[in-house]
Amino acid sequence: MLIDAHVHLDKYGDLLDDALREIEQKKIFTVATAMDAPSYAELTLIAESSPLVLPTFGVHPRRARQYAGRLREMDSLIEGSPAIGEIGLDFHWEKDTSTYPAQVKVLEYFFAAAREQNKFVNLHTKGGEKEILNLLEKYDVRRPIIHWYSGPLDILRAMIQYGCYFTVGVEVHHSDHIKAIANEIPDHLLLTETDNPGGLKWLKGELGMPSAIANVVETVAALRQSTPERIERLVYGNFARLIKDDPWLHDIQALLARPES
Ligand SMILES: [Zn+2]
Question: How many whole angstroms from 30 Cα to the centroid of ligand 1?
């Protein structure tokens, strides 16, 4: 089974049915990360049509300003969500520095909840890698997934020490820095993602479908002198370990434990 650990399924629009069909046909377990409350509401509806889709609630750093003043109102969504994401910091694409305190406030709120509720988190770290590592330590967040890491290698190594999992995605086909990162991540912390439909669109101008995850696996395999089959199994095993004792994911544990057809 393929693992796409960071996807924006609610952004597929007219292509949603095609995307869901690919997910079913290729058996892609899909962590569907939300940008905000309306996005999470859509994802929970979408997830009703496939057991392979796990919707998770978060407030993206670029939406932080709208939510920083009403975080308490988010409690029921946070409690109802089986995991947390997309959350994080963006001090790179977000040029408006006046949003940064709101970003930190929102992230701290979600980190505290994730720790208390024992949920894995899906993190956007662009330009805020060091701050995120500090906050992971401060809140003792267990089981972070760092999505599309593209920051400095020294922070990457510190995050590896901390025990973060990392998704490698579609940029691995194009960027030497991402290739270096994909090589540096130890076997036991490696995950894969597409960040689609926007991931490929951002890179190549074409909308990315779920099956793009197979190309990521192929490229990662070639980089790591492995085979696609071995990388697929490795990532699958890593994700299964990440959620092994998760009190919120018994159904998924059972799904992943089933022998693959
Ligand atoms: Zn994302």
Answer: 13
